[in-house]
Amino acid sequence: MTTVSSAEHTRRDFLYVATGAVAAVGGAAVLVPLIAQMNPDASTIAAGAPIDVDLAPVGEGQVIKVFWRSKPIFISHRTKKEIDEAKNVDVATLPDPQTDAQRTKEGHEPWLVVIGICTHLGCIPLAHQGEYGGYFCPCHGSVYDTAGRIRKGPAPKNLELPPYSFVSDTRIRIG
User: Fold this and answer.
1) What is the Cβ-side half-sphere exposure of residue 153, based on CA atoms within 13 angstroms?
2) Which end of the chain has fewer CB within 10 Å, C or N?
3) Does the reported pTM lie above 0.85?
4) How far apart are CA 170 and CA 151, in angstroms?
5) Domain ranges, ordered by start, for the chain
6) pLDDT tens-digit series, residues 110-160
């Protein structure tokens, strides 16, 4: 008669270990996709993600348009004349009083970054238009100056400012 000591492994021990390993792998195979599907979609992440914009190719007096969160963002490299005109406005006469300094970043006054959506009914204004040389909304006649402040027309507020910061002198991060 053959006796098996408890120190030796039997076929039954192997089956227990193998069954446990298959169950663990199967459980992981079920849990990984279950947990992964709870993460936001890549397009959702990209829609709210900050964007970096290189300002080096933007010439003085030029306005470029980029998109952030499906909104047009106007980035204007203002001339000294445009900056002086914006600074010399009597803020008390504006429908939505803001100084030029409140609408730009200190040390980067030539750069104006605004959300390019008219605050009246959401139309897209045109750059370098209107009697103040800023933005003009052809749909209903709102006129903004070179600082994006409402000067005439039905729009109740200035063009909105997106959250942005200067990463370097020639690069900004919007969002």
Assistant:
1) 26
2) N
3) no
4) 30
5) 45-174
6) 999 999 999 999 999 999 998 899 999 998 899 999 999 999 999 999 999
CA distances from residue 42 to 30, 34, 38, 46, 47 in whole angstroms, order as listed:
22, 17, 12, 6, 9
CATH of the domain spanning 45-174: 2.102.10.10
- Please give the Cα distance from 29 to 113 (Å, whole number): 48
- Token pair recorded at residue 28: 């992981």
* Terminal C-alpha separation, the chain: 80
Alpha-carbon distance of 45 to 61, in angstroms, equals 33
What amino acid occupies position 58?
Answer: V
Diameter of the chain by CA atoms? 110
Kindly give the residue spans of alpha helices, DSSP state H, lying in 9-122. 11-36, 42-48, 80-87, 100-103
Give tens-digit pLDDT for 33-91.
888 888 877 777 666 788 999 999 999 999 999 999 889 999 999 999 999 999 999 99
- Round to whole Å and give the CA distance between 50 and 88: 33
Residues with catalytic annotation?
Answer: 140
